[in-house]
Automatic annotation (TrEMBL):
This is F-box domain-containing protein. PANTHER family: F-BOX DOMAIN-CONTAINING PROTEIN, OS02G0208700 PROTEIN. Gene3D superfamilies: Kelch-type beta propeller (2.120.10.80). Pfam families: Kelch_1.
C-alpha cells in the first residue's frame, strides 16, 4: 500500500536542498511515487543505487530516509557477529584474528563487513559492539599487537558501507557491559588498566559524537553483561575487585529517563559468567542462552533478531563450534534448528548484536 503522500513529501523535503529537485528522483514520476519506489528498493541494491544520481545518493544516506524506511516496514534485522577467522589447516597456529560476520536469518545469507582501516589484519581483541540507528558501533578492546587497552571508537554505517572514527571513550576499560537503545550506546563496569573493577557508566551518541556520564553504579562490576529492556539499561552480574571470578547474582538497572540506578537481587544465577549469553525472554525477564542444547554449554553467544535468536557455542572445550536458530513465537522458545554455515564462517564467536538496516 502506498504511504501517505504528505508524509513522503515531507521526508523528501528533509533531505533535499532544493524543492525544485523533488521531481528528479525518477523522471516522469511524481515525487511521492519516486520516493515509494526507492523505499521498496532492497538494501542489497543500495550500493549500486548510490551511483545513479546525487539526489539518490543524498536520499539513501540520510537519517530521514532510514527512519522513513523503518516506519514503512522496509528495514531488515540482521545479526552481526564478532567472529574469529578460520585458519587454514596447513598454516602455523597463530592468535585468533577477529572480523565482523553478518548473518541474515531471513534469507540465511552470510557476509562480512570490510575491515576497520586502522586494523586491516584483525579487530582489537575483546572489543565490544552494539547497534544504533542502522549503524554498528565498535569500541574498546586490546591492541592485537601490544595488548594495550584501547579507547578507540569506530562506526560502520550500512547506508554508506564504510567506517568512520568516533570520539574516544572517556576512560580505558576492558570486559565491560554494553547495550543500545533510544539513539544511544551505553557502557558500564569492566575493569581499568590495573584490573580494578569499575562502577562508572557512560552513554555515547553516535550522531552527535558525544559522551555523557551516567553516574556510578552501586557496586563494582567486572566482566558484566549489558542489555537494554524498554527504557532501562540492565548491567547483569559481574564481580568486585576483591572477588575475582565470583559472579554476582544481582543486576544493576539504569532508568534511562530519570538517570537513576537501582539494584535487583537474584536475577542471575550466582557464580555463572554472563558474558554474551544474556537474553530477554518473551516475558521480559533475563534469561541465559547457555544449556538450551547439549551443543550450547561452552563459549555460548546469543543474539535476538526479531522473533528469532541466533545462538552459537560448543558442547565442551575444543569441540566444534555449532550454530543454531531458535523461534520465540507461539511458545516455541525451546525449538532449536541447527544451522550449517558456509566454509569460512564456522569460527568462534566472541559476541554479537542485532542491526536494523
Amino acid at each position: 500500500m502506498l504511504q501517505n503522500p504528505l508524509h513522503l513529501l515531507h521526508t523528501l523535503i528533509l533531505v533535499m536542498d532544493d524543492i525544485a529537485n523533488l521531481n528528479e528522483l525518477i523522471p516522469g514520476l511524481p515525487s511521492e511515487l519516486g520516493l515509494e519506489c526507492l523505499t521498496r528498493l532492497p538494501h542489497s541494491a543500495h550500493r549500486v543505487a548510490l551511483r545513479v544520481s546525487t539526489h539518490w545518493h543524498a536520499l539513501l544516506q540520510s537519517d530521514a530516509f532510514f527512519r522513513h524506511r523503518k516506519k514503512a516496514g522496509r528495514t531488515r534485522k540482521v545479526t552481526c557477529l564478532l567472529q574469529a577467522r578460520e585458519q587454514p589447516p596447513h598454516e602455523k597456529p597463530v592468535s585468533p584474528r577477529y572480523g565482523i560476520t553478518v548473518f541474515d536469518p531471513e534469507s540465511m545469507a552470510w557476509d562480512r563487513v570490510d575491515p576497520v582501516p586502522d586494523y586491516p589484519s584483525g579487530l582489537p581483541l575483546f572489543c565490544q559492539m552494539a547497534s544504533c540507528e542502522g549503524s554498528l558501533v565498535l569500541m574498546g578492546g586490546w591492541d592485537p599487537t601490544t595488548y594495550e587497552p584501547l579507547t578507540a571508537v569506530f562506526i560502520y554505517d550500512f547506508r554508506t558501507n564504510g567506517w568512520r572514527r568516533g570520539r574516544d571513550m572517556p576512560e580505558k576499560r576492558s570486559f565491560f557491559a554494553i547495550g543500545s537503545g533510544l539513539g544511544r550506546v551505553y557502557v558500564a563496569g569492566g575493569h581499568d588498566e590495573n584490573k580494578n573493577a569499575l562502577r562508572t557508566a557512560w552513554a555515547y551518541d553516535p550522531r552527535g559524537d558525544e559522551w555523557a556520564s551516567l553516574g556510578r553504579m552501586g557496586r563494582e562490576r567486572d566482566e558484566c553483561e549489558g542489555v537494554v529492556v524498554g527504557g532501562e539499561f540492565w548491567v547483569v552480574s559481574g564481580y568486585a575487585t576483591e572477588r575475582q571470578g565470583m559472579f554476582d547474582g544481582s543486576v544493576e538497572v539504569l532508568n534511562i529517563g530519570s538517570g537513576r540506578w537501582s539494584v535487583a537481587e537474584g536475577v542471575w544465577e550466582a557464580g555463572g559468567c554472563p558474558r554474551s549469553c544474556v537474553g530477554v525472554g518473551k516475558d521480559g525477564k533475563v534469561v541465559s542462552w547457555r544449556g538450551l542444547d547439549p551443543g550450547l554449554r561452552v563459549g555460548v553467544c546469543g543474539v535476538r533478531v526479531g522473533t528469532r535468536v541466533v545462538m552459537t557455542g560448543s558442547e565442551y572445550e575444543g569441540a566444534p563450534h555449532g550454530f543454531y536458530l531458535m523461534e520465540m513465537e507461539q511458545g516455541q522458545n525451546r525449538n532449536l534448528t541447527k544451522i550449517t554455515p558456509p566454509d569460512g564462517y564456522s569460527g568462534f564467536v566472541q559476541s554479537g548484536c542485532c542491526v536494523e538496516i
